Amino acid sequence: MKNKEYDSTGKIIGTIKLSIIAFIIFTLGFIPLVIGGKIVLMYISFTEIWHFFLLPVLIYIGIGLTLWYQLLISGLIIHIFKIKYEPGEYHYTFNNKTTFKWVLFCILYTPMRKLLEIFPMGGMKYRYYRLLGMKIGENTLVGGTIMDPCLTEIGDNCTMGLYSVIYGHIHDYEKTTLLLDRIKIGDNVVIGAGVFIMPGAIIENDVKIATGAVVTKGQVLKKGNVYAGIPAKTIKTKNKN
């Protein structure tokens, strides 16, 4: 009974802490928009007809600057204060330091991740991932979703199709556990659209994964092979069909 009361109290306190931290950080992200709006109103009174044609342009610029600044602020906060986590299995409670970090990371990262899916922002997307601890090689296209950047490594000359998802965690509500593990992807790997890659997976160099395949927890895909299906199985080896 005491443990349940302790967990319940820790959950309430943790939720309050997370809410306050998120409120402060996301509020800071709107500072340029507020300052920019104030400057615009100082010079444009919006009394002329052409001012209203200018308004959509200003709104577009404001949204772009706000998104860029939100990415910068959240990324720097995560990087400077080391809001990252290591592989392992943890009890899912806010009293656990790693679990608290993971939840805080998700709160700060998830809105930015969804915004990046709508507004790719060019090279800013990859700089943001690297700021969060993700290792990305040269000439690599990440078109899908990275759930845990600090646990993900992708090599050179890789392609990740749309709607693919790389998971670095498994959250088990029944057992109240949080499993975290790294995903390592080698060079010259092609990941088709809609592929799911689970924690602990290792994909060696020159592997191709067909659309809709599922790479299961801890699975190793061997160099040069082609994989498809659920779970992913070899459909073509390097030396023979």
Approximate shape: flat
Measured between the Cα atoms of the first and last residue, the distance is 60 Å
Task: Report the order of strands and helices.
Answer: HHHEHHEEEEEEEEEEEEEEEEE
User: What is the percent of helical residues?
Assistant: 40-55%
Determine the structural class based on helices, strands and strand pairing: alpha/beta
Characterization of the model:
- By secondary structure, the protein is an alpha/beta fold.
- It folds into two domains: 1-124, no CATH class; 134-241, Hexapeptide repeat proteins (UDP N-Acetylglucosamine Acyltransferase, domain 1).
- Helices cover 42% and strands 20% of the residues.
- It has helices at residues 2-28, 31-43, 49-80, 97-118, 124-131, and strands spanning 88-91, 135-136, 141-142, 145-146, 152-154, 159-160, 165-166, 169-172, 177-180, 183-185, 190-191, 196-197, 202-203, 208-209, 214-215, 220-221, 226-228, 233-236.
- The chain has a six-stranded mixed beta sheet with strand order 3-6-11-14-17-18, with no helix packed on it. A five-stranded parallel beta sheet has the order 2-5-10-13-16, with helices on one face. The protein has a four-stranded parallel beta sheet with strand order 4-7-12-15, with no helix packed on it.
- Strand 8 and strand 9 form a beta hairpin.
- Helix 1 (2-28) packs parallel to helix 4, helix 2 (31-43) runs antiparallel to helix 3 (49-80) and helix 3 (49-80) runs parallel beside helix 5 (124-131).
- The protein starts with a helix and ends in a 5-residue tail after the last strand.
